[in-house]
Amino acid sequence: MSRSLKQTAREVFTSKSGFTALVILAGILCLSAAAQFYVPFETVDKWNSPQFWQGLPRLAAPSWSSLLAGKNLPQTILVEKMDFLKYSYIIEQIGVKYITLVGQFEYAYDGFPSELAAVVEATYGGDQPLMNIRLERPDGTNVTLVNTAISNPTSYLYLSVDSETKARTLDFLKSAGSNEPKAVYPEVVLFAAKGANMGDPSMNSVLKGTYRIRIDVTTTGSRDDVDAEFRVYGQVYGLAGTDSKRRDLLVGLVWGAPIALAFGLSAAILTSVFQALMGSLSAWYGGVVDEITQRVTDIYMILPFLPILITVSVVYRIDILTLLSMVVILSLLGGMTKTARSMTLQVMTEQYIEAATSYGASRRRILLYYIMPRLVPYIVANIVLAVPAFVFLEAALSLLGLGDPRVPTWGKIIGDAHAGGAAIHGLWWWILLPSALIILTAAAFAFLGYALDRVVNPRLRER
Amino acid sequence: MPEPILDVRNLKVYFPIRKRLSKPTYVKAVDDVSLTLNEAETVAVVGESGSGKTTFGKCCLRLVEPHSGQILYRGKDITKLNSKELLWYRREAQIVYQDPFSSLNPFFTIRRTIEEPLIVHGVHSGPERNKMVEAALEDVKLTPIESFAEKYPHMLSGGQRQRVAIARAMILSPKFVVADEPVSMLDASVRVEILYLLRQLQEEHRISFLYITHDIATVKYFSERLAIMYAGKLVELGPIRDVISEPLHPYTQSLIEAIPDPDPQNRFSLRRVPGGEPPDPTDPPEGCRFNPRCHVARPECRSQEPQLQEVKPGRFVACPP
Amino acid sequence: MLNVSSLKLYYQVRGGTVKAVDEIDFNLEKGRTVAIVGESGCGKSSTANAILRLLPRNVNTYTGKVLLQGRDLMEMKDDEFRREVAWKKISMVFQGAMNSLNPVLKVGDQVAEPLIVHSSASKAEAAKRMSEALQLVRLPSSAAQRYPHELSGGMKQRAVIAMSLIANPEIVILDEPTSALDVITQANIMNTLKTLRKELGLSYIFITHDLALASELADSLAVMYAGKIVEYGAAEGMYTDPKHPYTQKLLESVPTLRTDKKPGFIPGAPPDLFNPPAGCRFQPRCPYAMEVCGQEPPAAEVDGHRVLCWLHAKR
Q: Which of C168, C194, C223 is the last residue in one of the domains?
C-alpha cells in the first residue's frame, strides 16, 4: 500500500493545482518555522504587555509601502539614552546642578513623523528638578517643547498630545508667519519648513536636515541625575506594520501561521476520522446501532454550530485549546459519517467481504483491515478540504472577539483591526495582510484537496 | 458404506420479504432439499437462475442461515454451532466464488490474499506462512512464485485470479469445498484447465466438492454424481453418465436438449425446449413446480407435489412414472 | 450482400496504440449468417462497432472497405450513414443490452424509440410497428406497458431484439445475445432467431465466444484471435476439419455433452492487443510454432478455408 501512496503523492504534486498547493504550503510552513527563530516565544508572551512595544510607532504601515507611496516615508528614529551627550556642572554656592543633554538626528524623509515622545528618567533627592526640552531645527529656529517640573522618576512625555507642547507649537507657528490650522499637530509643525501653511500637511513641506534635542535640567541635589530618550515615531515599520498597541504585526502574523495550521489540521483530522469511524461502524453493525447513529447524526447536522460557540464563549472566557475541543465535540458526527456509511454499505456487499467471512475472519477484523482502508482516500481528501473551513472558523470566532484573547491569531488581528476602526482610517495593512494569509492557507488546502480528489476518484471509477 | 462427509436433511432456506403489514411472504430459495456427499467425491448441482443452487451451497457453509433442516458435517449439525465450533468449521469448509475479480480484495497482494486465512486461524509465524503460501501457489501452478506473490489482482488474468482464489481456499487444508460456478466467467479455453486443476487437488488431498454450475456440459470433467435443481427443489439425482444419457425428469431432459454441441447441423432445426420461465419464488405453482412448462404433465401433477424417489439404487427422481 | 475488406480499427491509449481490428476480411450473403468467434479481447465486438461506425473518441486508425450491396459504407459521411444505414439497413443487439434498458421508461417506448430517432415516423406508425415487432419476438403485447425490471432476463432480451428489428433492417449484428441467460431461455431465444431469419429473410453477423452456440446459426465461421481473422470458411468444414491450430484447440476445449471426447485447453492467455507479439499472434501458445512464425503469416486457401498460418502457406 505504501507503493501506491508514493504513486498517489507523485500524481498529486505534479498536477497544476497540487503543485500550487505545495508551493503555498511550503511558504506557510517556512513562515511557521521562521516563527521559531525570528520570533521566539517570549515575544508572543509579550504580545499582551504594552511595555514591550513602546519603541514602535502606532498604526504604522509596512516599510515597503514607501515604494507604493512613491515617497520615502519616515521610519522611527530613536535617540536613546546613550546617544545623548551629557554635560553637567554644579554651582555649589547656590546648590544648583545643571545637567544638559544634547542629542541629534538626521531627518531626511519625505513625510512627517507620526508622533513625538520623550522619556525622562531622573533621580533626585528632595525638590523636583525643572526640565526644559528644546528642539533645534536645521533652519536655525528653536522651539521649546516642554518647560516643566519633573514629578516622577520616570516621566513619559507624549509630546504630540501634550497641551503645553501644543500651545508652544502654536506660538511657534504664528511667529513663523503661518496661518492657523484647524488643529495643531506638533509632529507636523515642528518638522515643517517655514511657510504660509506650516500646519497643513496637505500644503506644507518637510524640513530636512539635522535636528537637535536639548534637554536642560535644573536640580538641587548634587547626586541628581537625568537620562532621556527622544522618540520620533515614523509612519512605517517593519514588514507588516504595527497595530494600535504598537505591536509589530509581523510577530502576530508569523505566529498566527502555526496556530492556524495546527488548529485547522487537528480539527480537520479529529473530526474527519471520528466521523468516518462512526459512519463505518454504523453501517457495519446495522440494525438499531445504525438507526440511532444516523438519527443522532441528523441532529448534529441541524445544530447551529456558530451560534452555540458564540453563546458559550460569551458566557465563559475560553482559551484556544478549549475552543478546539468544543469545535471537535460539535463536529463528532456530520457529513462524513453519511459518506463513510454509504461507502461501507457498498463495500460490504462486495464478494471478498463474504469470502473473508467464509474463512473465518471476525467482523472486527474485516472492518479494520478490509473496509477501513477503502475509506482512507476519502478521509484524507475530506481532511484536506476541511482544513480551510476550520481556519476560517477560528478566524471568524477570533474576529468576533470570542476566541482566545491572549494568543495572536490571524483572526484576532483582524478583530483588533475592526475594533480599531482600521477600515475607516485606511489602515489597510492591518486588515489585508492577515486576510491574505488566511485566504492563501485556505486556498492551498483547497488546491491540495482538488488535486487529491482527481487522483482519488479515478482510482475508484475504474474499479 | 462409510459415513458421508456431508449429510443435508430437509433443508429449507426461506428469505422473508416484508410486504407492508400483511403476513410475511417468503422467497423459498431452497425448499426441502436432502443430499449427501461422500469423502473425496464431487457432486455437481446444476440448475438455472432461481433454482436455489447457489443458496444451497452457501447455506452448507453457513454463509446463509437456514430456515429449517439439518446439515450434518461429519455427524455434527453445523446449523447449531457456537462461535468456537463455527471457527473450526470455517477451517474445514471453504468456498471458491464465481467472479475471480470481486472475490479477491483488490488492496491485498496475492501473497496477503492467500495468507490471510492463515492469519485468521492463528498461524503467527511469518516465515511459516510464507512457506505455506508458496506451497499453495505451486499447487495451483502459479509459478514462478516471485512473479505472482507481490502482484495485485487487477494485474492478473481471469484464469490466474481464479487460481489464486483456489489457492486461498486450499491453504487451510479443507475437507469440503463449495465451488460456486468457478469457471463460468472464464474464457472457454481456460475453463477445462481449471476444472482439471480442481480434480487434481481433489485426488491429491481427498477433498469433497459441491460443484455448482449451470453448464451441464462441464460436469463430466469434474463430478461423479449430478443433482438437478429446479425452483428450490431437487428433481433428479444420480451418477453423471446415467443422468445425462438417460434423463428421467422432464426438466433434465429439456436441460440436456437445450445445450448445443458444436455441430453445424444445429442451424437447420429448432430445439425442443419448453417455453416460459422458472416460477416466481414467492408464489410457486401448486403441485409439481415444473408442471406449467412440462410436456408430459398429467392432471395429478397440478395438485400433488412429487417426492424424490429412488427408482434405481443411487438414482433419484421427483416425477412419478 | 456485405463485403468487408481490410477493415482496421486502432485505438489510441495512454502509452500506445491498441490494434483492436487488424485488417480483416469476410463476406455475408443474403439470408445467411456469419459467426465471428473468439475469446475475450480478440476484437470481435470492436468489429461490430467498426461496421456500424460506433467509434469511441480515441480512434487512431479507421480504414478499409465495407461494401453493402456494392456501396462502400466507409465512404459515406457521418450523417448520411446515420440516416440511411444505421438501424435501417444494419442494426445491432449489443452485448448485455438487456441490462442497459432504461429503467424509468416503459419497454414499449424503448422498443419504438429507434424508429422515432432514425426515421420520420409518426407516433401512430411507431406504435403499430412496435406491436408488430413484439409479436415477431414472441412477446405478449402487455409487455409494452411494463418497465424493464418487471420482465425476466429472457423477455428483456427479446425486447432488445425487437428494438433492433423495428426499422426493418436487412442485417442484424448480434453481439453475445444470450450471455447471462439460462440455458433453456438461451435455446428459446436461439429458436426465435432461427425463425426470424426465415420469416424476415434476415442476414446475421453473430458474435460469440461460444463455438457450440455459434453452430446454432452459422453458415460460415470466422475465428478471430488478437484482432485478426485466423481462419474463415463454411461452417461444415470449419467444425469438422479446422486448419488453424487455434481453431483446432478452441474446438477441442469445448466441453461436449453428447460425445465422450477428452477436452483440451490452451495454455497461456490471449495476448494484450496493446503489444501484440511480432509475427503470428498465436505463436506463444501454438503447439506447432516454428521459427518462421516470427513473421506475419500470409493468408492461404486450403479446402475452401482462408487460413492465416505458416503451416498452410505456399512455400
A: C168
Q: Is B107 helix (H, G, I), strand (E, B) or coil?
A: coil
- Do A311 and A430 lie in one domain? The reply is yes
**Sheet strand arrangement including A225-233:** A77-79, A225-233, A115-123, A154-157
DSSP character string of A396-441: HHHHTT-S-SSS--HHHHHHHHHHTTHHHHT-HHHHHHHHHHHHHH
Q: Which of residues 351-410 of A touch B (CB under 8 A)?
A: 351-352, 354-362, 365, 370, 373-374
Q: Chain B: residue nearest C154 by CA?
A: B277
Q: Which one of C186, C209, C215 has the shortest CB-CB distance to B264?
A: C215
Does residue C315 form part of some domain? no
Residues C302 and C277 in one domain: yes
Cis peptide before B144 (omega within 30 of 0): yes
List, in order, residues 6 or more apart from C154 with CB less than 8 Å away: B277, C181, C182, C185, C188, C189
CB A387 within 8 A of CB A444: no
Residue pair A378/A273 in contact (Cβ under 8 Å)? The answer is no
Same domain, A364 and A220: no
Q: Structure pTM?
A: 0.74
DSSP 8-class letter at B286:
S
Q: Is the CB of residue B98 less than 8 Å from the CB of residue B182? A: yes
C 53-82 residues with CB below 8 A of B?
A: none
C274 reaches B (C-beta below 8 A): no
Q: How many domains does chain C have?
A: 2
Please check the confidence at residue A257 and state whether its pLDDT lies above 90: no
pLDDT digits (tens, 9 = 90+) for B119-162: 999 887 888 889 999 999 998 988 788 888 888 888 888 889 99
Looking up residue A408, the CATH number of its domain turns out to be: 1.10.3720
Q: Is A88 within 8 Å of A100 (Cβ atoms)?
A: yes
A60 inside domain: no
Residues C58 and C104 occupy one common structural domain = no
Q: How many CB atoms lie within 10 A of CB A68?
A: 11
Dist. CA A349–CA A360, nearest whole Å: 17
Q: What is the pLDDT of residues A404-452, one digit of tens each?
A: 777 788 888 888 888 888 889 888 889 998 898 888 888 888 887 777 7
State how far the Cα of A339 lies from the Cα of A280, in Å rounded to an integer: 9
Q: Tell whether B155 lies on the interface with C, counting CB pairs under 8 A.
A: no
- Partners of residue B270 in chain C, C-beta under 8 Å: 191, 194-195
The H or E element that residue A359 is part of is none
Output the furthest CA–CA distance in chain B (Å, rounded): 68
* Nearest residue in chain C measured CA to CA from B261: C212
Domain B6-102+178-317 belongs to what topology?
A: Rossmann fold (3.40.50)
CATH number for position A217: 2.60.120
Instruction: Give the one of A357, A359, A463 whose C-beta lies nearest to B106's C-beta.
Output: A463
Residue carrying the nine cell digits 496504440: C17
